[in-house]
Every structure is written in structure tokens, then in C-alpha cells.
UniProtKB/TrEMBL annotation:
One of its GO terms (cellular component) is cytoplasm. This is glucose-6-phosphate 1-epimerase. It is an enzyme of class 5 (isomerase). GO terms for molecular function: carbohydrate binding; glucose-6-phosphate 1-epimerase activity. It catalyses: alpha-D-glucose 6-phosphate = beta-D-glucose 6-phosphate. The keyword Ribonucleoprotein does not apply. Belongs to the glucose-6-phosphate 1-epimerase family. The active site is at 167, 271. SUPFAM superfamilies: Galactose mutarotase-like.
Length: 313
């Protein structure tokens, strides 16, 4: 049909940064900036934004974009010579001219393949050769899927280790009215208490103060229930054993330059991650980590999630 917008379109975003817009035929969309290889928008077929992006987000290198789905690699958190959460989220990725085969159904036509390669600057701080391929797909029902493949291409015979997270910021109506199901009774490391290990109590996780926890050995499905919006996010993951839950609350939000003072009320980070234990790749070895996000009516709850539903298409 003439005048129809393409399913995949490369265009300019904020401050002239390149972005790829993915469109699904029923009307859902996603936007992926080449800066950071970062999804910054995911809208359903009603045009409702499902991801949170800060009202003060800085779309200008070298500052990472606050919101959407930043990619944390080759480290999560802050230690050693590397910048916080690694360098992948503030580097320019390229559209992959020779994408490797991905297990994505042929009906998923709205996708983009990106690649990140080492720069001279990065190898000074992290002296390894790697190939990072990312596919972002908008599925036929509006589901958002991210598949990362990281390969060790060192020629010196050396293995390397890394940690990883999809630092997903979900848009919620009111953080006080949201709960998470699927992490109850699990152990977590509390970053607000020097990574001390605790066991989660209660039937579901709710929020009334700052939270910064790494849940370990998590199931591959987690549900985020937003009562006010009558919406449930279903997070499915593969190759990512941990889940990070973060909200800065009021005091810390005011201390974060690129976050609005009241933004914490409308965001919740639930991150599919591999952070408790480092992942190690020998030369030639490849790791794959996959995330699938769905937004469904809130009549769903974690016990209703289909246990037979698999991540691989």
C-alpha cells in the first residue's frame, strides 16, 4: 500500500543521533539508537510507551542514555579500570552488514542486527578482542526481543571474563502500586548493605523505599504487575541467571543529574543479568543471552505464565 511506513527505518533521533525505528503491522513500534545499541522506546499498538526514559536524559556522547534498555558489558556495576556498567552503552554500534543466523522466526520481519567491535581506547582498559552481535526484534504480537551473542576472538589464546545486564527501565503508573512476582523466596545480594546475602520474604515484591538488589538463580519468567494501568509485563530470559531490581527513590533521584526529581515514581528497573558470577569464554567460544518482553492485561499473574512456552523460536 502506498504511503505505508517501512517496517525498519534508519533515521535521525535526538541531537541528530542515528536510530532505527521498528514497526509491527498492527501498530506497535520500537526505537533503537546506534549510540549504545540501546532500545529507547517500545510502544504498544495503542501508542502507549512501555519503557521509561528520563525527562532529563542526555542524548549526547559520552554520557549514557538514562532509560530504555542500556546494555551493560563487559561489566555490571563499577570496579576496576572500566567505567560504570562497562563501555557498550556509550559506544557507537554499527548495523551488522553480515548478520550471523539468529533463531528468530521468519515472520518477525521488524528487526535490526547491530555489532560492536573493540576500539583502541577500549582495549587499553580491557585488553581483549571480541565480537558482540545484537539482534533487536519486534514480534508479530508487539513483543520485544533482544538477543546478544558475544564471541571471544582473542588470537593470543587467552580467555576473558565478563558480567552482563539488560538494564531495562519499565514505565509504571506509580512505583508504590507495582509488585513483582517470580522472585519470592529467592536469595539476593543487597547492594545497599554491602552486597550482604538475604532471602526474600513475602508473596511478592513491593516498593516503599530505595531498592538495589541482585536476585540469584532466578526463574526464566518474571512478572511485573501495574495495578493502576491494569498491565502486566512478562519478562522471559535465557542465559541470564540473575535479576537486578532497582529504584533510586526520592533522595537518590535528586542526586542523579540526568533523572528528574519525581521520575523515580514512574520507573522500575528489572534487569535480566549475569552478574553474581562472571561468565568466561575461551578463544572461539560464544555466549548467548536472550530477553523477551511482553505487555499483557493484568488478569495475568505469574502462576498463569505458560511453563511450556520456550524462548527459542
Amino acid at each position: 500500500m502506498s504511503g505505508e511506513k517501512p517496517l525498519v527505518e534508519l533515521c535521525k533521533g535526538v541531537n541528530g543521533l542515528d536510530k532505527v525505528v521498528l514497526r509491527e503491522v498492527r501498530g506497535s513500534t520500537a526505537e533503537v539508537y546506534l549510540y549504545g545499541g540501546q532500545v529507547t522506546s517500545w510502544k504498544n499498538d495503542l501508542g502507549e510507551e512501555l519503557l521509561f526514559t528520563s525527562s532529563k536524559a542526555i542524548f549526547k556522547p559520552p554520557k549514557a542514555i538514562r532509560g530504555g534498555i542500556p546494555i551493560c558489558f563487559p561489566q555490571f556495576s563499577n570496579h576496576g579500570n572500566l567505567e560504570q556498567h562497562g563501555f557498550a552503552r556509550n559506544r557507537i554500534w554499527t548495523i551488522d552488514p553480515n548478520p550471523a543466523p539468529f533463531p528468530t522466526a521468519t515472520c518477525d520481519k521488524a528487526f535490526v542486527d547491530l555489532i560492536l567491535s573493540p576500539s583502541d581506547e577500549d582495549t587499553k582498559a580491557w585488553p581483549h578482542s571480541y565480537e558482540f552481535r545484537l539482534r533487536v526484534t519486534l514480534g508479530p504480537g508487539g513483543d520485544l526481543m533482544l538477543t546478544s551473542r558475544i564471541r571471544n576472538t582473542n588470537t593470543d589464546g587467552k580467555a576473558f571474563s565478563f558480567t552482563f545486564a539488560y538494564h531495562t527501565y519499565f514505565s509504571v503508573s506509580d512505583i508504590s502500586e507495582v509488585r513483582i512476582e517470580g522472585l519470592e523466596t529467592l536469595d539476593y545480594l543487597d547492594n545497599l548493605q554491602e552486597k550482604e546475602r538475604f532471602t526474600e520474604q513475602g508473596d511478592a515484591i513491593t516498593f516503599e523505599s530505595e531498592v538495589d538488589k541482585v536476585y540469584v538463580g532466578t526463574p526464566n519468567k518474571i512478572a511485573i504487575l501495574d495495578h493502576e494501568k491494569k498491565r502486566t509485563f512478562v519478562l522471559r530470559k535465557d542465559g541470564l541467571p540473575d535479576a537486578v531490581v532497582w529504584n533510586p527513590w526520592d533522595k537518590k533521584a535528586k542526586a542523579i543529574v540526568d533523572l528528574g526529581d519525581e521520575d523515580y515514581k514512574h520507573m522500575l528497573c528489572v534487569e535480566a543479568a549475569a552478574v553474581e558470577k562472571s561468565l568466561t569464554l575461551k578463544p572461539g567460544e560464544e555466549w548467548k543471552g536472550r530477553l523477551e518482553l511482553s505487555a499483557v492485561p493484568s488478569t495475568y499473574y505469574s502462576g498463569q505464565l505458560d511453563p511450556q512456552r520456550v524462548l527459542e523460536c
